[in-house]
Write a structure and sequence with these properties.
Blueprint: E1 40-44, H1 46-49, H2 77-85, H3 88-91, E2 96-99, E3 103-105, E4 125-131, H4 138-150, E5 154-159, E6 179-180, H5 191-194, E7 204-205, H6 217-225, H7 229-243, H8 249-264, E8 268-271, H9 279-299, E9 311-314, E10 326-328, E11 333-335, E12 343-346, H10 349-355, H11 358-369, E13 377-381, H12 398-407, E14 411-415, H13 441-446, H14 448-466, H15 468-472, E15 474-479, E16 484-490, E17 493-499, E18 504-509, E19 519-522, E20 527-530, E21 535-540, E22 545-548
Parallel strand pairs: 1-2, 1-14, 2-5, 5-8, 8-9, 9-12, 12-13, 13-14
Antiparallel strand pairs: 3-4, 6-7, 10-11, 15-16, 16-17, 17-22, 18-21, 19-20, 19-22
Length: about 550
Amino acid sequence: MRKIFFYITLSTIISCKPTSTEKKETKPTAKKEFVWEGANIYFLLTDRFNNGDKTNDINFNRTKKTGKLRGFEGGDIKGITQKIKEGYFTKLGINAIWMTPIVEQIHDGTDEGTGLSYGFHGYWAKDWTKIDPNFGTKEDLKELVAIAHKNGIRILLDAVINHTGPVTEKDPVWPIDWVRTAPQCIYNNYENTVSCTLVKNLPDIKTESNENVELPPQLVAKWKAEGRYEQELKELDAFFKRTGYPKAPRFYIIKWLTDYITEFGIDGYRVDTVKHTEESVWQEFKVECDVAFEQYKKNNPDKVLDKNDFYLVGEVYNYAISHGKAFDFGDKKVNYFDKAFNSLINFEIKWNAKQMAEKDVFHKYDSLLNTNLKGYGVLNYMTSHDDGNPFDKERKMPYKTATMLLLTPGTSQVYYGDESARDLTIEGTIGDATLRSFMNWDDITNKKETQNILNHWQKLGQFRANHMAVGAGKHQLISDENGLVFSRVRNHDKIIAGINLPKGEKTIEVSSIFKNGEQLNDFYSNQKVEVKDGKVVINSEFDMVLLEK
């Protein structure tokens, strides 16, 4: 159920295009504050980002011809680790990476009118307790988390409790006390969104059930063949003894998902298909995530990155920041923040950025995050893996995309390739496949314009990462004459930013934040200026200014 919006495009589109020669090396700095409300999260499809290990590209005889961009293409955990080591994420100002699910996927493919598809995207679970060999191994994930944390980057995995993978000849349906295979959701009220299958041939976990159920026989046979049945059973018995939960379907999956916290030290979960499951499930999930995270920190005091709690961000499809805390099903309103999510993905900002002036977007988000949503957050995005109406599908506004995403209050989600204008209109694809092409590394290496775009994203991203005030501070308009100038303040962290400014010499009023005589740095043009008479004068070829002390 997608809402239809009518909008007019803003006439003023940011056109600052720094050249790649202006890139500066990032030097290690003192430990910066980090809060999820101001984070800059990079979202990638594990299979489509970077191939770090070509030996794991084919498993389970997944060799059938697929529809365009609907098969495995080699991206893996090692490929992500490689890019962290190279400093790619640090230069982009990323302080958290969200990767699509890495659990073992169904072995076969399925064709629902889009050409044969394999579970390259990770949302078709076969076995939650095992990492799919196409993505890597437990050792690969341990290394990824360790290297990420060493670089000040947090890791979010993607949690699916709502459904198993599709049924195929190789992947039999789970028992009827575990799943329903009908009816298919029609999304016109709460019941028809929750107690149904998301789409055809996607068995729905009976998350409402409190009945004790036995393990699916195919899972028992699999674990026995892999020599780990006794160990898995022992762990499950310990979990149910500790918690007192019934051996109901959802609690098995919650146990399996929280194991990734205690074993690997991941920092959070992005949770899939939230509104298709009873809200109480997410409250139960949060309790067990918190227990697991505390256990990990107790067991690994030297590996703890900061004092933040475990982070949960939910995908409530079509949730908008304007909804506040309550999502409306028509016949029922549900608060998913309550005792569950720190944040929800915000499906609205891409429309706001087209319909409203920048100053109005910033004011709106600041107002809502400091009133209705105080204590919680939203995750803003311009592009995603299953949103067929991104902010800039033709990639004609990559500079504005960065500016609006990274300077709007809230947490930001950079979708892989946003920063390099990766093509979203791949000929021959059907549906969301066009959004999921392999990362365009060649363009970054060889195309000057791609390098210019990337440089803009890097500067804004680093500035945002250096100053939690950008995403999580109090916003204040300073001037909207000859461009937009505003401040953000969070405790002792204070910045002033200007966009749509004249190129060349520009005078910025800074007296509300900085004192006469203070030396400031314009992070965008990399020049020092002194505050005189409550103002600074910047002479640069750019129409953007990012001022810090």
